[in-house]
Design brief:
Layout (H helix, E strand, L loop, with lengths): L5 H31 L1 H8 L5 H17 L1 H15 L1 H19 L5 H4 L2 H31 L5 H30 L3 H5 L1 H5 L1 H13 L5 H8 L7 H6 L2 H36 L4 H15 L1 H13 L1 H27 L1 H9 L2 E5 L19 H11 L5 E4 L7 E4 L2 E4 L3 H10 L13 H19 L2 H8 L5 H17 L2 H12 L7 H17 L12
Parallel strand pairs: 1-2
Antiparallel strand pairs: 1-3, 3-4
Helix pairs in contact: 1-5, 1-7, 1-8, 1-11, 2-3, 3-7, 3-23, 3-24, 4-5, 4-7, 4-23, 5-7, 5-11, 7-8, 7-23, 8-15, 8-16, 8-22, 14-15, 14-17, 14-21, 14-23, 14-24, 14-25, 15-21, 16-17, 16-21, 17-18, 17-21, 17-25
């Protein structure tokens, strides 16, 4: 019998990693396009409500894709454990590609009214279902092909695909902005969605050439495949306990570190600090290029020192550093507004009963009290403010530095904020670009610590016969619900409080909880034998 050819085995390993990763990159590209274009989509599909509500609605539609990801995990995880890894994640990429292409064809709110956002949300949910089945299949497939001692390194490439998909979406958006110029917000925004059909063709062709994973093939040949993966995964307390530990010890915390570093940071720069969108995207692209290799690095390192120490370090750094890092980002990205808010802070003094949370789901509410009008003005201008309660029946007043304005007087407020040095938007020439990139890279490195070893941990926690189903659900609850809702929840908290950093409490609390659960309940898994699991 001929000895195995190490060179041929190496080529096969590289082909498996490349094919699985490339297809997943394209899926993440499709999914992230919406996030990159959220500001434009809010104008095109949610034009029937006020600007603040429209943007929150756009973020909610973005989150709708995350909402259904756990259901996609159940549907496709079950198929993956019953019929195989290869054919299941071939189905997911076709569903994702067609749904994304369809977004590029949708009529807008101005054309067909409320039907436009309804169809958009439906397509986002189809994308979420597809992505719910994609990750578990790709991670399981690669891990089950990886030789001993290399699972973290090999699956680290799958972990990098989300960032690479985001990078690809940002690059395509920038290219389309350049090509269509002033028409980008009119019709040019459709091009990145329509181009997904090309990526669909490439990734489908590549995945058709793959073979089934050896662990699944061996299990199938022995007749040990599960007839009811969902019941075995979640109807048995020993396995359900591991699912819950996986969710709360790492997936929830990992999710918010990823979306804080690569989505919320973009919303923070453009919507809160009023940085030019093209400049913010460019700096994020540079940061992603620098940070992306560390997904693979920390996956590799976890093969050497263990998964748990790296995961714990990432969660700890997120919990401790988010507030300082975002405050530094504010200082370097918009130094004028940072200086003005320190020297001339804005305070709204009002009877709480006269102020409402300005979120209008149906576009019928009227925010016409003096307090509502004051807060609307401040939010639209991107001005940070604090709120001070006063006695019932007292008229609203605003202090901007040492200037006090009684009642709602827009002209007086405009004059006061201009005098205090608050800019209408970030001055591109004053943005400290190297420091902004450095801070974003720091946020990305924290995310790579929690995300790089994640696929290996999740695969190693569960037995082969129910691995696809068991690992997919906690991953997608963590990323779909805890992570996917981060931009929406955090932005809404900023709007409600006026504190531009208040939204950070959401990821900080989640990472702190994951840190504690990880310390006490997550076991080290790097030496687990997958074939005997």
């Amino acid at each position: 019998m001929a000895a195995p050819d190490p060179a041929a085995a190496g080529r096969e390993e590289r082909k498996i990693i490349f094919a699985s990763s490339l297809g997943t990159v394209f899926e993440w590209y499709d999914f992230f396009l919406y996030g990159a274009l959220a500001a434009i989509i809010s104008k095109q599909f949610f034009a029937g409500v006020n600007d603040t509500t429209a943007f929150i609605f756009a973020l909610m539609a973005f989150a709708a894709g995350f909402l259904v990801r756990p259901f996609g995990a159940l549907v496709f995880g079950r198929l993956g454990d019953m019929i195989g890894r290869k054919y299941t994640f071939l189905m997911t990429i076709v569903l994702m590609g067609l749904s994304t292409f369809a977004v590029g064809l949708l009529p807008t709110y101005g054309t067909i009214g409320i039907a436009a956002p309804v169809m958009l949300v439906c397509l986002r949910m189809l994308q979420g279902l597809a992505l719910g089945g994609e990750y578990g299949g790709a991670a399981t497939y690669v891990a089950e092909h990886a030789p001993p001692g290399k699972r973290g390194h090999h699956t680290g490439w799958i972990q990098s695909t989300a960032t690479l998909g985001l990078l690809l979406s940002l690059l395509v958006v920038l290219a389309c902005r350049y090509l269509t110029g002033d028409q980008f917000e009119v019709w040019g925004w459709r091009l990145p969605f329509l181009l997904s059909v090309v990526l669909l063709g490439i990734s489908t062709w590549i995945r058709m050439s793959l073979h089934e994973s050896p662990s699944f093939s061996k299990m199938k040949a022995e007749g040990k495949t599960s007839k009811s993966p969902i019941r075995e995964s979640f109807g048995s307390w020993p396995n359900l306990k591991i699912v819950l530990i996986a969710l709360f010890s790492i997936n929830a915390g990992q999710a918010v570190t990823f979306y804080a570093a690569q989505f919320y940071v973009l919303f923070f720069l453009t919507q809160i600090l009023k940085m030019d969108a093209a400049q913010a995207n460019t700096l994020l692209i540079i940061s992603v290029v620098i940070g992306a290799p560390f997904f693979v690095f920390f996956g590799w390192l976890s093969d050497r020192v263990g998964r748990k120490p790296i995961l714990l370090m990432g969660l700890l750094l997120a919990t401790v550093l988010y507030f300082p890092l975002f405050k530094a980002l504010s200082h370097y990205a918009n130094p004028q507004i940072d200086a003005a808010s320190r020297q001339s802070p804005i305070t709204v003094m009002a009877d709480p009963a006269t102020c409402t949370f300005q979120f209008d789901p149906v576009g019928k509410a009227k925010f016409d009290s003096p307090c509502d009008k004051v807060k609307t003005f401040l939010v639209k201008a991107g001005l940070p403010y604090s709120t001070e309660k006063v006695a019932a029946g007292t008229n609203v007043a605003v202090t901007i530095g040492d200037k006090r304005i009684d009642g709602y007087d827009e002209a007086a407020m405009r004059a006061a904020v201009t005098t205090a040095g608050y800019p209408a938007k970030a001055d591109a020439s004053q943005v400290n670009q190297p420091m902004v990139v450095l801070i974003i890279v720091a946020l990305i490195l924290i995310a790579t610590m929690t995300y790089g070893p994640l696929a290996a941990v999740m695969v190693e926690l569960f037995p082969t016969r129910i691995r696809y189903t068991s690992m997919s659900l906690p991953y997608h609850i963590g990323n779909g619900w805890f992570g996917g809702f981060l931009p929406t929840v955090s932005f809404a908290l900023v709007v409600y409080t006026g504190d531009i950093f208040y939204g950070l409490w959401y990821p900080v609390i989640v990472t702190a909880v994951s840190l504690v659960v990880n310390i006490f309940f997550l076991k080290e898994t790097k030496d687990v034998d997958l074939d005997n699991a």
